[in-house]
Each structure stands twice: as structure tokens, then as C-alpha cells.
Amino acid sequence: MTGTRPPLLDVDALIDDPETRVLVCCGSGGVGKTTTAAAIAVRAAERGRRTVVLTIDPARRLAQSLGLRELDNSPREVKTEGFEPKGELHAMMLDMRRTFDDMVLAHAGRDRAEQILANPFYQTISTSFSGTQEYMAMEKLGQLVADGGWDLIVVDTPPSRSALDFLDAPQRLSTVLDGRLIRMLSAPARAGGRGIRKIVGAGFGLFTKAVSTIVGGQLLQDASTFVQAFDSMFGGFRQRAQKTYELLRSPGTGFLVIAAAEPDALREASYFVERLSAENMPLIGLVANRTHPVLASLSATKAHAAADGLERAGDAPLAAAVLRLHADRVAVADREKRLIARFTRAHPGVALVGVPALPTDVHDLDGLHEIGRRLAGE
């Protein structure tokens, strides 16, 4: 790699540090983020920490690679075979609707909670409001931390830039639920219609008729009833979200950006690094995933020349083919080095570790164990 070498990201030192309590893995799609998060969790459990990995990505890759048929909203212990961890390994997948339901039950009291949970408007917005998934991810993370039973929590975020939407989730959800339209919807139930008349004046009848035509009269009534029931517990939602946001900025939390040594992935990685820096979030470093280091010092030019000589002489066709494969590998490695060097010049203080690609995709615990070894530089 040309230029100044970046600091080395020491993964074992990171996960061995008892002060490290939460690791958030973020990155664009297709870079091996879920696999990396699971491999870090496996490595941490092997080294003696009671670890849980939480995936927000609804894909089944994490469960499959951990040898589980499925994951749900509660941690499941992963039974390891072939190696005995000194600690424990657990895994779970965020169930957004169930987490929202649990929050309602915790904040609203039994009678009001049942009213909210049965409300058709709630059943729609609990899975479709912008920011709901990220908000519930923060809530679940807060629950895991509050539980106090975990040495390390590894969070696997959704792919693409939405992986950082949870930084905005409290404000976004607050804006929606505190917004003018929602308050107008809640007015009839709270003030027999007088509140909304005050807002829209003489046009009240036209307004309600227009909205009823667009969304349906029953949905309008459901929304009004929901907001009235939800109003008393909304402050608690915002408080909890803010507390988890502060947790993300605390010394015990670290963010790992996962990227492949490809132009698009490293551009996204730069975006993550800059956004985390702007938010004063604790960035740990970059994992350059699935790299292709070369094992011999023979240059691509010399390898091609040697292959040409063998082919002209009509000797050793297999050796000539191997030399050309080596030349191709050197070209790929050089390209990756240039791309990573470009990232490092833009972000010289970001620690970095390269993880060599495996010959095949990772589908089981053995593969995760091997990725963990490569993350640690073994």
C-alpha cells in the first residue's frame, strides 16, 4: 500500500477489553457485514465473553451461518461444535412489530395498551412509519444493555446508508408523531372537534370531508383514537430513544465500518466515517473485507513474460496457466491496494484491518471461526 500506512485495527484487543460493551457494524450491501458481525461475536465468545449478536437485517443469513433454523426477538444460545468457547454465544433478529408492542405494554398500562394494540391505525404505522425500524433497533439495543447480562453486544445493521438512520430515528419519529397533521387527527377525539375547528376555522367541514375522502372516514377515526391513546406515553418513547442515542456515543460503544475493496463500497465507507465523525460517534475503524493478498513477490509483468516463454517453447502448459492466474491475482491485489490507499489518504486516522477472502462463501460456524481468525490477523 502506498503512502502513509493506516493504524492497524487490533480486533482481539478490542473484543478482549472489558470496557467494550457494544460494537455496531455498518456498511453498504454485499460487503459481508452480517458475516463479519457474526464472526466478531463468535471470536468474542471463543475468548471468554458472554456475547449476543443482534441483526436488524431481515435476511436469514445470520441464522443459517450460526446453524439455527431461524432467529426471533429474544436471544437464542448458539450451540458450537468443533470448538469450545470460553464464553457464550447468543443471537437474535429484530422483530420490529413485537418490539413496538412490548414498548406499548411497558408504557401504557394494560387497558390502554390493549386499546392501542387493537387499533387498525397502530397496526399500520407500527411497521410502516419512516424511522420505525431504526427506532425499534435502538429500543432493543437499550433493552439488551439494560439487561446487564451481556459482556458484549454486536449489532448488525441493515445494508446501505439507511444503516445510520438510527442516529436520526428519535427526532424523525418525534417529528412525525408531534407533527401538525397528527395533532389535527387527534383533535376531534380530544376536544369533540373544537380543537381542529380552531386550527382550520370555517373550513373544518371541507377539511374533514377532504381527508375522509382521501384516507377513509374509518381510518381518520382510527388515527384520531390512536393518537389520543398514544399521547400520554409519547414522552416516554422520546426519553428512551434519547437515552439509547447517548449510549451510542458513550465510551463503551464502538462503530466498525465494513467495506469491500471496491470503489462503490469504499465511497459508502467514506460517507459512514464522515457521518459518524460529524455526530461525534466513537469510530473504531474499517474492516476491508474479502481482500486478495498475493503470496509470492513475482510481479504481474514477470509472470506474464514467463508464461509467454513457456508457451512459445511448448513446455509446461500447466505452469504457464498458473503463472497467468498469479498475474491476474497480482493485478487485483494492486487495484485493491490503490483503492484502500485512496481511502486512507482521505481518512488517515482511521484504523484498518484487511480480511483475506475465503475460497467459498461462509455458511456455517466453521466459516465464521475462520473469518474471526483472519480478522485477528492469524
UniProtKB/TrEMBL annotation:
The keyword Flavoprotein does not apply. Pfam families: ArsA_ATPase. It comes from Umezawaea tangerina. This is Arsenite efflux ATP-binding protein ArsA. Keywords: ATP-binding, Nucleotide-binding. Residues 20-183 form the ArsA/GET3 Anion-transporting ATPase-like domain. It comes from the Bacteria. InterPro entries: ArsA/GET3_ATPase-like, ATPase_ArsA/GET3, P-loop_NTPase. GO terms for molecular function: ATP binding; ATP hydrolysis activity. The keyword Membrane does not apply.
